[in-house]
Write a structure and sequence with these properties.
single chain, 421 residues, mainly beta, Porin, globular
Length: 421
């Protein structure tokens, strides 16, 4: 074995022996070999927001938006990714860990029941990746992974716009479970999985369902006067099931080559984040597509999300079981003007309803325009103007509940700077 100069010098004066040095260097070499395939990456996401008008106690209830971000400068999140990707071996293995630091980590909702919900830290994903040599290769994720449905990514830099859609807001976020994925051919792939619960809280169980005030999408859209009655827990055998399929247009389809059509569903129990709020069964459905056009620089996208929940409405005489639904349809348009300059727009309609006895109903139109210019290397820099408009008297942006004094419009101008490393 060839020793480095420092090892030879130490052995010469009797500080170490060549035998111990050989074992130490062998262990070091093994550790380095094991860590060599591991990569470290991530990003720092910052923003500056100006909300038109005064009084921002109630802001549009889309994901990662909060009054504390209004009219000021913000650190949104820092992500650190440690990953060993699957290689080409038949029995390949790897892992991935995504850690979040900053205010958005508190909204992610992955904190377990043993951790604080406001620590500015969260585990976004942490799973073991496996491949079995069945057919074209059957891939598994075991641990905590992102939801399999949705048009937009949880990572702001991977989306055409800085702010999130309402469709993204009502979708499941992450799951603790097992996911299997298989690519039948270049044009068709599918995934199926089972998890503890629908909600993001790591290691949550349907058995820990709680009674309390309704939280989540409906709390922001139509109020929080809903609660579960008594112990709403489910049996330990009750799990969350999910599945999705993806179609990709082949090269033979001309300009449509590379276009995708995606659909999926998630059904299970939501016991709410970190054991707070109301537990309820819920079902989520999604269909989305990204399409190329005859103009190479122009792409079009469309997404439909549907959420169905079962909850309880508190009345003077007790609680009444009611169903709630929220659905969203959004269109996306992106144009790559130059290598650095691009334009992106999103137009979305969302409808949220809770049945009698209250009959609350919210209709929202949201239009977003984004200009992105990547002036610096590894930096995403963009400017975004967003308008949220209530199409009925249901108040969601401040003021009184309904009618006179209700605030039906919310405008925001934001600058977003993201450094990727």
């Amino acid at each position: 074995m060839k020793f480095n100069k420092w090892t030879v010098a130490l052995a010469a004066v009797g500080v170490v022996s060549f035998a111990s040095a050989a074992k130490a260097e062998e262990k070091t070499s093994s550790a380095v070999t094991a860590l060599t395939p591991t990569s470290i990456s991530g990003y720092v996401d910052t923003s500056m927001e100006w909300n038109f008008g005064t009084g921002n106690a109630n802001v549009p209830p889309y994901k990662f938006n909060s009054p504390s971000k209004s009219d000021g400068f913000n650190l949104d999140v820092v992500q650190l990714r440690i990953e060993k990707a699957l290689d080409e071996q038949e029995w390949a293995a790897g892992y991935r860990v995504d850690l979040w630091f900053g205010p958005d980590a508190n909204s992610l909702g992955t904190q377990s029941s043993l951790s604080s919900g406001s620590s500015d830290f969260a585990v976004r994903q942490a799973y073991v990746a496996l491949r079995a040599p069945l057919g074209n290769g059957l891939d598994f994720k075991v641990g905590v992974f992102d939801s399999i449905i949705g048009y937009e990514s949880i990572e702001a830099g991977n989306n055409p716009n800085f702010t999130r859609s309402y469709g993204h807001t009502i979708e499941p976020q992450t799951h603790t479970g097992v996911l299997a994925s298989y690519r039948f051919c270049d044009c068709f792939s599918a995934s199926v999985g089972v998890a503890d619960t629908v909600n993001s809280s790591i290691n949550s169980r349907a058995t820990s369902g709680s009674s309390g005030v309704l939280s989540g999408p409906f709390a922001g859209l139509i109020g929080s006067s809903y609660a579960t009655a008594g112990d709403n827990a489910y049996a330990e055998s009750y799990k969350t099931y999910m599945g999705s399929v993806a179609l990709t247009a082949p090269d033979s389809m001309g300009f449509l080559s590379g276009s995708t059509l995606y659909g999926g569903a998630v059904n299970g129990y939501n016991n709410s984040v970190a054991g707070t709020g109301a537990g309820m069964p819920q079902r989520s459905f999604y269909v989305g597509s990204t399409m190329a056009t005859p103009i190479k620089e122009l792409r079009f996208g469309v997404a439909w999300d549907y959420l169905d929940v079962q909850t309880w409405y508190a009345t003077s005489s007790g609680s009444t079981h009611v169903d709630g639904t929220a659905w969203s349809v959004a269109g996306y348009l992106s144009y790559q003007a130059t290598e650095k300059l691009s334009f992106h727009s999103r137009c979305e309609y969302v409808d949220a309803t809770i049945e009698a006895p209250s009959g609350l109903h919210a209709d929202i139109l949201a239009i977003t325009g984004t200009v992105q210019y990547d002036l610096w290397k590894n930096v995403i820099s963009r400017l975004e103007l967003r308008w949220d408009h209530s199409l009925n008297d249901q108040n969601i942006f401040g003021g009184t509940t309904t009618g006179t004094g209700a605030l039906g419009n919310a405008w925001m101008l934001a600058a977003n700077i993201i450094y990727k490393f």
